[in-house]
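Hi R.,

Here's the chain you asked about this morning:
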Amino acid sequence: MPESAPLPPEIASALADSCLADLPSVVLDRVLVGAEVVRHPRGTVVRPPDDPRATQAPGLVIEGLLRVFRHEADGREATARYVDAGDLIGLAALLGFADNALAPGLGASAVHDTIVLEFSPEAFSFALRDEAALGLAVCRYVFGELLATQHALTGSVLLPVRSRVASHLLDLAERCDRYLIVTTSPQQLAAAAGSVREVVSRVLRQLEETGIVRRERDRVVLLDSAALHRLASNEMYLRD
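And the predicted structure, written out as tokens:
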């Protein structure tokens, strides 16, 4: 991306919502040298979990949603986190973890159609080395992700499955006309919530019986998002 070119509105908006928002313009110009917009259709494996040499270019999510997951040899999967607009990806290689040694089995896929502004690894790396403002911004972002991960882990341990399912339904929802739609399966929700398919299927059935969601083949229609928010925070209970 040329240094002097005006930024498209969607890129400017994502940058404004990111940890890079307060960078001096001269530093941001360095980061954007050679940057390219990359599109990942829904379901695309952005980072394969079975290739320990796989690395991901540093980038900024402009639009959409990525799912970072851990894949076990026996086929089980668990969701580690979701990455949406304004989040950074691909920092591992830049921080010296190019061999993926600290994250065996970790992969990423596009939950929705996703647009990423991929930075030039060389330009980003040189700026990270030379510009204290960028280093501080990345440190703050990584620390924020650490706190969010700790919060999510404690929530997964302490909250019931119904709360975790409700939370993930809200995270995965896309607007379609006047409804929020989640295209998923009980097995995928189970992986996200750290449970098993049978338990998640029962929770979905209870949500449908109480009028909170409606199931349609491979998607779930959210009819009462306020109730899902109460469930997610464990302020509402479903009958057994």
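The first strand starts at residue 36 and ends at 40.

Let me know if you need anything else.
M.
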